[in-house]
Amino acid sequence: MAAARFLVEGRVQGVFFRAGTRAQALALGLSGHARNLDDGRVEVQAAGSADAIDALAGWLAHGPPLARVSAVTREDGVDLEPMHGFSIG
Q1: What is the pTM of this model?
Q2: How far apart are CA 82 and CA 67, in angstroms?
Q3: Average pLDDT, stretch 8-34?
Q4: CA 59 – CA 73 distance, rounded (Å)
Q5: Which of the two ends of the chain, N or C, has the fewest CB atoms closer than 10 A to its terminal CB?
């Protein structure tokens, strides 16, 4: 199982970014979470197949229609606690 942590910058809070991320992750069979950070970024942690994580990374680069993503930082191979489903917080 692969795992990655993403930090997404831009206009990504208040535009249904976390909800869209959750929908994409579940459709791809990933577990994890998406949460707003105090500095305006969104943190996404995902675990599952490497192909599914790559597909999620592609979606995160654009996000939902109201989002304006300016940068995505990816860290592969992170140690995640076992997760079930995909939560937003």
Answers
A1: 0.93
A2: 29
A3: 96
A4: 13
A5: C
- Active-site residue numbers? 18, 36
pLDDT in tens, 64-89: 999 999 999 999 987 776 678 899 98
The pLDDT score that the predictor gives to residue 78 is 77
Place of tokens 């489903």: 85
What string of H, E and C letters represents the secondary structure of the chain?
CEEEEEEEEEECCCCCHHHHHHHHHHHCCCEEEEEECCCCCEEEEEEECHHHHHHHHHHHCCCCCCCEEEEEEEEECCCCCCCCCEEEC
Which residues share a beta bridge with 7? 43, 73
**In Å, how far are 27, 29, 61, 76 from 50, measured between CA atoms?**
14, 11, 17, 10
The sheet with strand 86-88 has its strands ordered as: 68-76, 2-11, 42-48, 31-36, 86-88
Strand 42-48 with 31-36, pairing: antiparallel
